[in-house]
Amino acid sequence: MNVKKLKKYFPNATIKENEPLSKYTYTKTGGPADALIFPKTKEEVQALVKWLYEQSWPVTILGNASNLIVKDGGIRGAVIILTDMNQIIVKENSIRVLTGAPLIEVSKRAYQSSLTGLEFACGIPGSVGGAVYMNAGAYGGEVREVIRKVTVLTRDGEIFERTNDEMEFSYRHSKLQETDEIALEVVFELTKGDPEAIKEKMDELTYLRTSKQPLEYPSCGSVFKRPTGYFTGKLIQEAGLQGLKWGGAQVSTKHAGFIVNIDNATATDYIELIEHIKEVILDKDGVQLETEVKIIGEDHPAVIESNDTLIKKATSSFKAKLKTIMPLTEEN
């Protein structure tokens, strides 16, 4: 892949070569991107994606990289980060947003305009595009409840709109996960509300978030989806896994549903710890945990270890108890 050729065709674009993605991910982990590009407009994204498609370059789209783990080997091809594409326009009861904008900022703008419906999003750290892609939600709300339409881009450069119904939203899912389309712009449809009541709700949710989540450390946010009939954090706690350290990563002592970077963790530390948690919960409770966090990229060439070596990286007291834990029965 010829990055010089890319820079020649897009001389006004911000393009970084072999850029460590650990500078941009919330976990502070991740290897380099061959080419990292920061477009500012929908048209620029369209031109980039179309040209890269014609050149047969792999293309990865990122937003805030908050609910994401990039492997230590990095990402081949072009990585397009949309965070510079962040315009927010409020008109009557609707908010039109380019998808690189932080969802938190959109929630604030809604409050400033006395619009209710996005209070639940006041603490979600991702971009609007990432929130649409995974139907982000918190505290009983989801973005699908307030989205009217989404402007999307196909990988061969076509732009069109999808209605809310056409997005096929469900729990942590949207149509984009199947089509590989890129969300460029979103229109939120809200309702007029009492600004004092909106502020009160946002303050309440902010308190809950700051008091219960480990915001003092780098993390990838909520690691696992909630399995039907269970609370993931409680499953992890009851399995004795809270506080478990794996390399520089740790199951948060504040909220067991989070894994934090406490000591220069690698993406490999995160991924191995995630897999270990999944195995333990499956063996103990018969529950198959699914990751909410998205894991992308390539493994580092040096990351080939035996299972015995991986187990030795665990430093929690759980190691001593692992063999004695019995599966729960219905009576338990």
CATH topology of the largest domain: Uridine Diphospho-n-acetylenolpyruvylglucosamine Reductase, domain 3
Name of the level-1 CATH class of the largest domain: Alpha Beta
Query: What order do the helices and strands follow?
Result: HEEHEEEEEHEHEEEEHHEEHEHEEEHEHH
CATH architecture of the largest domain: 2-Layer Sandwich
Main beta sheet, described?
5 strands, antiparallel
N- and C-termini, Cα separation: 57 Å
CA radius of gyration: 21 Å
In total, the number of strands is 19
State the low-pLDDT regions, or none. Answer: 316-332
Number of domains: 3
| DSSP helical segment count | 11
The helix fraction, in percent, is 25-40%
How much β-strand is present in the residues?
15-25%
Write the layout of secondary structure elements.
Elements: H1 3-9, E1 14-20, E2 32-38, H2 42-54, E3 59-62, E4 68-70, E5 75-81, E6 88-91, E7 94-98, H3 103-112, E8 115-116, H4 128-134, E9 137-138, E10 141-142, E11 147-153, E12 159-163, H5 164-167, H6 176-179, E13 182-189, E14 191-192, H7 195-212, E15 219-222, H8 232-238, E16 245-246, E17 249-251, E18 258-261, H9 267-285, E19 294-296, H10 307-312, H11 318-321
EC number: 1.3.1.98
GO biological process, one term: peptidoglycan biosynthetic process
Pfam families: FAD_binding_4, MurB_C
